[in-house]
Amino acid sequence: MTWSEDEADYVPTQIIAELFKSRGYGGIVYRSGLGDGHNVVFFDVDVAGLVNCSLFEADAVHFNFKQVTNPYFAHSDS
Fold this sequence. Notes:
The protein is of the alpha+beta class. The chain is flat, with a radius of gyration of 19 Å. The chain has a domain at 7-47. A hairpin with a 6-residue loop joins strand 1 (27-31) and strand 2. It contains one helix and two strands.
């Protein structure tokens, strides 16, 4: 997956997940589209248990901005 605000982008993934679930799979593991890690999906969350828990504090946040076309913005002629 990629960063997206359009929920329709997730439909193919949801269909594939439902297919695996209907075939008796307990979940799937796939490479993250947003980083170097992996994502794990359990179709029944009760099969997973907490193994480890840590608290993290963010000490810095960095944002990059660029101007993009916005079809919802209207320029005023006045």
